[in-house]
Amino acid sequence: MPNYLTQLAKYNEENNITATFSEMKKTARRMQKLNDETGLHVEIESYFLDYADETGELATDNVLAENAINAARRTAA
């Protein structure tokens, strides 16, 4: 199982990206979840390119959609 937190910390240091440990941990968890769902190794640079959102609007839409999916899953169980 890949250690995304270590890879992410190294990537951030090499690219002068400032992020708190908590932010990196959350991102690493999302990457691990994506890895588990697809069965494919997630490349950090590709992940950031795919999920980059300058304005934050897309992130809000994604969170709301993810919350709706999780709520539907909880009520269906």
How do you describe this structure in short?
By secondary structure, this protein is mainly α. It is 74% helix and 0% strand. Helix 1 crosses helix 2.
Radius of gyration, in angstroms, nearest whole number: 14 Å
Count of beta strands: 0
Mean pLDDT: 86
Distance between the termini: 29 Å
> Beta fraction of the residues?
under 5%
Globally, the shape reads: globular
Listing every helix as H and every strand as E from the N terminus to the C terminus, the arrangement reads HHHH
Percent in helix: over 70%
Q: How would you sum up the major sheet? A: none
Kindly name the structural category. Answer: mainly alpha
Count of helix runs: 4
Unreliable segments (pLDDT under 50, ≥5 consecutive)? none
